[in-house]
Automatic annotation (TrEMBL), chain A:
<dbReference type="InterPro" id="IPR037099">
    <property type="entry name" value="Fum_R/Succ_DH_flav-like_C_sf"/>
</dbReference>
<dbReference type="Pfam" id="PF00890">
    <property type="entry name" value="FAD_binding_2"/>
</dbReference>
<keyword id="KW-0285">Flavoprotein</keyword>
<dbReference type="InterPro" id="IPR030664">
    <property type="entry name" value="SdhA/FrdA/AprA"/>
</dbReference>
<dbReference type="Pfam" id="PF02910">
    <property type="entry name" value="Succ_DH_flav_C"/>
</dbReference>
<feature type="domain" description="Fumarate reductase/succinate dehydrogenase flavoprotein-like C-terminal">
    <location>
        <begin position="509"/>
        <end position="643"/>
    </location>
</feature>
<feature type="domain" description="FAD-dependent oxidoreductase 2 FAD-binding">
    <location>
        <begin position="35"/>
        <end position="448"/>
    </location>
</feature>
<dbReference type="InterPro" id="IPR015939">
    <property type="entry name" value="Fum_Rdtase/Succ_DH_flav-like_C"/>
</dbReference>
<dbReference type="InterPro" id="IPR036188">
    <property type="entry name" value="FAD/NAD-bd_sf"/>
</dbReference>
<dbReference type="InterPro" id="IPR027477">
    <property type="entry name" value="Succ_DH/fumarate_Rdtase_cat_sf"/>
</dbReference>
<dbReference type="InterPro" id="IPR011280">
    <property type="entry name" value="Succ_DH/Fum_Rdt_flav_su"/>
</dbReference>
<dbReference type="InterPro" id="IPR003953">
    <property type="entry name" value="FAD-dep_OxRdtase_2_FAD-bd"/>
</dbReference>
<protein>
    <submittedName>
        <fullName>Succinate dehydrogenase flavoprotein subunit</fullName>
    </submittedName>
</protein>
<keyword id="KW-0560">Oxidoreductase</keyword>
Length: 644, 258
């Protein structure tokens, strides 16, 4: 299948404006004739569903949680970027665009990223108008901070709870539409398949998580805003329920999957404490503004720490290796996430890890506290220090924090064109579940920006163009395509419920996670990836023969819910491994060990790999087909990222 | 992160209820070798994996982000919403807090309130909160066509106060803590956020009347200013908000223009 990105003609700065003019409009009186399904109610899904309702479409929105307000966007801490230049420090739409392209290691589409930067300002205006309580300065104007190593202060924030406040803003807009009757919200409902009629997305099959009822929903278009698939690693910073089922079902119906191996690994997470761990907790990246990262200079000292024979405060200044400051003198502790993560791994691989497990490095505030005083540090990071202490029982004002990288965000996702439409007509993917804007590495404070850009300011326009060309006729849910999709779903459920094995879905999930982390995590190589592929295939076979389930479909059954998700992760994980294997360059969050500079830094190969990997499903048991969307850079010059 | 603690053992006294119609009862389950660094929810995971291996139905409880922000976890532990500890959700509660009670019994119940019917075991339906929000907990503006964000200056003090109110995670601990199962802390936090900000002024009166009316319709009890809600709120939402809502409500009730 050929990939048409539908990037508009013309100068970069005019593309979106011209494109909006060229998009067909739906007459206001006709909008009520169209039904749209939105799956997921996070920043992308809720903002899209609310905007569709405001425009006059009939919307059905779905989420697996008990309320739209609980989507995992709520957990984002740091902030949201916009090119307002309120600080007069030289920011501009072009600079935000440029930083995002460069930060993504030149593996995203210029036109999409420019549009993202362009609409970023409207997002801030929109959220403020909704009553989102962003931080203010004493003059009553919005405050900004520098974030994630950006050279300008372009990040808007609401304490350490920016994601929460932006989501609650979108949720309030959604609530207003629910009240008006334009949006019908289905909570505790999970999408289990996509329904195609004449090759177009025309509906979904859902399972009601309370009653087990399998339901059919028909519409003129389906929009997926289901978030990322980072839980394929089992341990991640994602919420426990985040899953890849909706996008994976769409993939198997013909939606291509872009850059599946691009996973962001976040350097500042609380380390794993043991085998009972279910979840990792991220500490805001803002901590690196004042914290200094170090490990002991010698393995012997590190071992004493690991055994609890000495305390971190016993280690003299000259015996500490502030390795980021040493290796990257100009960026120091503020190097980008991929660089910080990889170097932490290198230190631990060299035996200098500082946790009992040997898998952690220190993030030390001693210097900052001595310089600015404890009160100043408390004012900036108090809630984060408190959270750290609650979880670890350690006081970071007295002893250095321990951090370790963790899976955080997936930059890969369903391939979409400039209109955010997948390769299935009428099926859209927005927010984290599409591949489009972050390339190989997502910059800080840009996930919230993308979710809301897609939901508030892109898809409300682009979907109209599709609907304007779509007849009003509704597909009845009695259509054979619905019968067929429902049968597949009930077939899977029955097979799982009849399985008589002795290993629980969580046990399979943990095993998959360990394989993915070991061989497709912070660093990958051909040998490991080949091994991982075999291991995943074997594990998948065992899963279908031997997963242990209990209960029936017709009631709340969380073991079944998990099993259905794990079944899809077991397939998605293999595609991630395939993609990582095919990309024999290092790029952003993808560090291929065979491709590094003499100094051990990531080596990109622009001549061979300046493309989007787009994988096309070829049928059960057949290898997926790799299609390439060549990336054309007309406005930025590809340079090697250097932070020395 | 700690050191070489031995695993802890507990007896859990858990509320089991098949569905909304069924009669519930307490059942006891042992759970052993729990790391003191495990969260309370991870301890329940261990219990549930054991139950599943024995062929028994796991205990259902709500949880999602496990970072203290989504508001989904909702357990009443040893007589307190979200268990022991100040300003904490269950996912942030760690088993080391129970260290001194090794071998003891921990009682786990669902939120108990007529407006939060039990769905199964420890899972309750908090849809009432969403319906209260839908009654008016928003600023009525459409996407696009809004003024520049800095066109509405808001003093830092006011913005901070609005933020404090907006911090509510909608978990329902306030209702669970209240002897009358009143939802005043939740509703007043929502009302206060918008009532403090200039953006919320146009609909201020209609909003407070509609939200309070919906709160009553949902069957939440009356507020008697006991303050248990504030004491147990995981986000430290202040009773001040209730006072503010009462003032707004009175003013709106007396006003002829809604």
């Amino acid at each position: 299948m050929s990939l048409d990105s539908k990037i508009p003609e013309g100068a970069l700065a005019d593309k979106w404006t011209n494109h909006k003019f060229n998009l067909k409009l739906v007459n206001p009186a006709n909008k009520r004739k169209y039904d749209i399904i939105v799956v997921g109610t996070g920043l992308a899904g809720a903002s899209a569903a609310a905007s569709f309702g405001e425009l006059g479409y009939n919307v059905k929105a779905f989420c697996y949680q008990d309320s739209a307000r609980r989507a995992h966007s709520i957990a984002a801490q740091g902030g949201i970027n916009a090119a307002k230049n309120y600080k007069n420090d030289g920011d501009s739409v072009f600079r935000l665009f440029y930083d995002t392209i460069k930060g993504g290691d030149y593996r995203s589409r210029e036109a999409n990223v420019y549009r993202l930067a362009e609409v970023s300002n409207a997002i801030i205006d929109q959220c403020v108008a909704q009553g989102v309580p962003f931080a203010r300065d004493y003059g009553g104007l919005l405050d900004n901070r520098s974030f994630g190593g950006a050279q300008v202060s372009r990040t808007f924030y609401a304490k350490g709870q920016t994601g929460q406040q932006l989501l609650l803003g979108a949720y309030s807009a959604l609530s207003r539409q629910i009240k008006s009757g334009k949006v019908k919200l289905y909570t505790r409902n999970e999408m289990l398949d996509l329904v195609l009629v004449d090759g177009k997305a025309r509906g979904i099959i859902t399972r009601n998580l309370i009653t087990g009822k399998i339901e059919r929903h028909s519409a003129h278009s389906v929009v997926l805003g289901t978030g990322g698939y980072g839980n394929v690693f089992f341990l991640s910073t994602n919420a426990m329920g985040c899953n890849g089922t909706a996008i994976w079902r769409a993939y198997k119906k013909g939606a291509q999957f872009g850059n599946p191996c691009f996973t962001q690994i976040h350097p500042t997470c609380i380390p794993v404490h043991g085998t009972q761990q279910s979840k990792l907790t991220l500490m805001s990246e803002s901590l690196r503004n004042d914290g200094r990262v170090w490990v002991p200079k010698t393995v012997e000292t590190a071992q004493k720490l690991q055994k609890g024979q000495i305390k971190p405060t016993d280690i003299a200044e000259e015996d500490r290796d502030y390795y980021l400051e040493r290796i990257y003198p100009s960026f120091g502790n503020l190097v980008p996430r991929d660089v910080a993560s990889r170097n932490a791994k290198n230190m631990c691989d060299a035996g200098k890890g500082v946790n009992e497990t040997g898998l952690a490095v220190f993030l030390d505030f001693k210097t900052a506290i001595a310089r600015d005083g404890e009160d100043a540090i408390r004012a900036k990071y108090g809630n984060l220090f408190q959270m750290y202490e609650k979880i670890t029982d350690d006081n970071p004002y007295k002893t250095p924090m321990m951090i370790y990288p963790a899976i955080h965000y997936t930059m890969g996702g369903l391939w979409v064109d400039y209109n955010l439409m997948t390769t299935i007509p009428g099926l859209y993917a927005i927010g984290e579940c599409n591949f489009s804007d972050h390339g190989g590495n997502r910059l800080g404070a840009s996930a919230l920006m993308q979710g809301l850009a897609d939901g508030y300011f892109v898809i409300p326009y682009t979907i109209g163009d599709y609907l304007a060309k779509t007849p009003y006729d509704k597909v009845p849910t009695s259509h054979p395509a619905f019968d067929e999709a429902e049968q597949v779903v009930t077939g899977r459920i029955n097979t799982l419920l009849n399985s008589k094995g002795d290993k629980t879905p969580d046990e399979y999930h943990k095993e998959l996670g360990l394989i993915m982390w070991e061989y497709c995590g912070m660093a990958r190589n051909a040998e490991g990836l080949t091994k991982a592929k075999g291991m995943i295939q074997k594990l998948r076979k065992e899963f279908w023969e031997g997963v242990k389930l209990i209960g029936v479909n017709e009631e709340m059954n969380m073991t079944l819910e998990k099993a259905l998700r794990v079944a899809d992760f077991l397939e998605l994980g293999e595609l991630m491994v395939d993609d990582a294997f095919a990309r024999t360059e290092s790029c952003g969050g993808h560090f291929r060990e065979e491709s590094q500079t003499e100094e051990g830094e990531a080596l990109r190969k622009d001549d061979e790999f300046a493309f989007v990997s787009s994988w096309e499903y070829q049928g059960e048991g057949k290898p997926a087909k790799l299609n390439k969307e060549e990336l054309v850079f007309e406005n930025v010059k590809l340079t090697q990222r250097s932070y020395k | 992160m700690s050191s070489n603690h031995k695993g802890l053992n507990f007896t859990l006294k858990v509320w089991r209820q098949k569905n909304a119609q069924a009669k519930g009862e307490f059942k006891e389950y042992p759970v052993s070798n729990v790391s003191p660094d495990s969260s309370f929810l991870e301890m329940l995971d261990i219990m549930n994996e054991d139950l599943l291996h024995k062929g028994e139905d796991p205990v259902y409880f709500d949880h999602d982000c496990r970072e203290g922000i989504c508001g989904m976890c909702s357990l009443f532990i040893n007589g307190r919403p979200h268990g022991p500890g100040e300003e904490i959700t269950v996912c942030q509660l760690h088993m080391r807090e129970f260290n001194s009670q090794d071998g003891g019994t921990i009682t786990i119940e669902p939120w108990r309130a007529a407006a939060f019917p039990v769905i199964k075991d420890l899972v309750v339906d908090r849809g009432a909160f969403d319906r209260i929000q839908q009654a008016g907990g928003y600023v009525s503006i459409n996407t696009g066509g809004v003024p520049d964000a800095n066109a509405i200056p808001i003093s830092k003090e006011v913005a901070d106060k609005a933020m404090d109110a907006a911090t509510c995670i909608g978990c329902g601990a306030c209702v669970a803590a209240c002897k009358n199962a009143s939802a005043m802390l939740f509703v007043s936090a929502k009302v206060s956020q918008f009532s403090l900000l200039p953006q919320g002024q146009a609909e201020k009166k209609r909003r407070v009347l509609a939200m309070v009316d919906q709160m009553d319709t949902e069957g939440f009890g009356a507020c008697t200013n006991t303050g248990a809600c504030e004491a147990e709120c995981p986000k430290g939402i202040s009773l001040e908000n209730i006072a503010r809502m009462n003032r707004d409500y009175l003013a709106a009730s007396l006003s002829q223009e809604h």
